[in-house]
Design goal:
The protein is an alpha+beta fold. The protein contains 14 helices and 33 strands. The strands form nine sheets. Strands 10-2-29-30-26-24 form a six-stranded mixed sheet, with no helix packed on it. Strands 25, 27, 28, 31, 32 and 33 form a six-stranded mixed sheet that branches. A hairpin with a 2-residue loop joins β27 and β28.
Length: 637
Amino acid sequence: MADITGPAVGMPMWGFGRPDQINEGIHTRLRSRAFITVQASDPKRRLVFVSAELGSIDHHIALEVVERLQKHFGTTYTLDNVIISATHTHAGPSGYWHSRTDTGLDGGFYPAHFDAIVTGITSSVIAAHEDLQPGNILINTGRVADAGVNRSVIAYHENPQRERDRYRENTNTSMTLLKFVGNSGALGAVNWYALHPTAMNYYNRLISGDHKGYASVRMEEQQRAHQGSGDFIAAFAQSDPGDVTPNTNLDNTGPGETDVETTRIMGQRQLVAAQALFDAAQEPLGGAIDSKRIYVNLSGYEIDGEFTRAGEQHTCASAYGYAFAGGSTEDGGGHFLFREGMTEQSIWRDWLVRLIIGGHEWTERVKVCQAPKAILLETGSGTPPLQSQIRSVTVARIGQLVIVALPAEVTTMAGRRLRDSVMRELGDGAHYVVLAGYSNGYAGYITTPEEYMVQQYEGGHTLHGRWTLPAYQQIVSQLAAALESGISLTSSSAYDDWRGKSSGLALPLDNAKPLPSGARLGEAVAQIEARYRPGQTATARFWSTNPTVNFPEGKNYLLVEQNTSAGWRQFADDGDWSTRVRWQLESGAYVAELSWAIPQDTRPGEYRVSHFGFDASGARFAGTSEVFEIVSEDWQE
């Protein structure tokens, strides 16, 4: 496991695309968690799975990570046996895609952020490699209760009734979990469950792993406390949540009273299910480890009628629809000029889009291919296109488990069809199929052809047109068949690597004023209160600097310590759910506000809070609050 937290102040946040959502600090740190499985009888057969707390994976991240791994391990790790999957948190900084435009449509490209992510992911894989040991992998599956609802029921109901009748629910409520056990006991766990990390909504300004980050940290804390060891790793990986929201009120709220509370509730529900599956896991994975991967150009990919149910068809050069700009209404919506369901092209909207973002006028060929989508922005037909049209798809096998790694967000029914397509090609030894979305790239959504036609948000963000899902079904079927037969596949397309071509941006910095006369960095702006009870929030404020100035230095800006018989002992840091660091300008100078929501089970005693940072020269500074007391609930003055 390694840290991949991005710049904490001044960066546009990934996911909601709102220009006013600029980050101000850290709620929880973002992590990369890596797992390596090796076939004992043939160590060359191995698979890397990384769950990274990011909004998406730019394929250049995968390219760079593999190249760095090969400097350490030669050809042990390649693009064919490395899967890097994003959890899809919407509460992390953007700016790590290799942009092909200077308009900043995708947040711009910040090389320092990209490099920090690659360094962290690479470090997590190296750590996993160095910790390889004999052991068993146990698998278990089960239902997660009340953790998400379908946010696009209108589109879901466009699927055939006879198909919908096969399923009791309109979301995928199944969690698949792997338990890694070594000679000394449990080493870690990874699970896949489909739920959008949009509980932290677009009013949030703090970096967070959202509900999956919460669940990961909590399970690691529990297992490490149980085992008395600090090495247990728990990844709550992403699956096919394209139309599944945690905001159960379907209005960007619920079930919690705040977005933070909704995040905790949804994380806790996944945690409860995962812990039960972990405790009951008994079935060992056994058999070969193998993987097949291919590059495919989806700008005009030919699809057989077996998969389209409508004769031979083809995909389209990528384009975003009006419905994309309208956003998912249930998760807060998008730009006020657009809404879900738009299929009629508007001359004045097209003119406004070109005026504001400088996009090219859509072409008739792509417009016809993408019908009934109203084209917002055509990104796949230029020379070069604004987005790569080359997609990397992997199907891997660990014994009776099959992992389908896709560079996209998959809706519930699309995921079901993809699983069926894979299972039809595999023998009796394949019992489980998980979809790992957001893997090794990002290509928008995959909706069913029926869902696509009504152009809800997900359809407007299905970049390659109505036949995108059948295309992927054909691709994964070919990969699964090759996996079963053992034949090799050769990509007909090469990836158009954009490293070294993007216009790199310096990290955004402001013109903060010097501290007030007499103040020093790390000095308390106001004294902390003398005592608190569990359930209350302790807050300390220190003179500080903009942490982005010295990024990626600074792996911890906050420390809570408890006074024990052995001296001051760490109790929490800025990676804990209970803590927050927010930087704010006060009289033009930076103040860091550190807060600690004191857990209910915190023991009475003496505590203190410290803040760390770097001055303009890069030298470290630190400041510590006065000692304060935590008293029991029945304490009285």
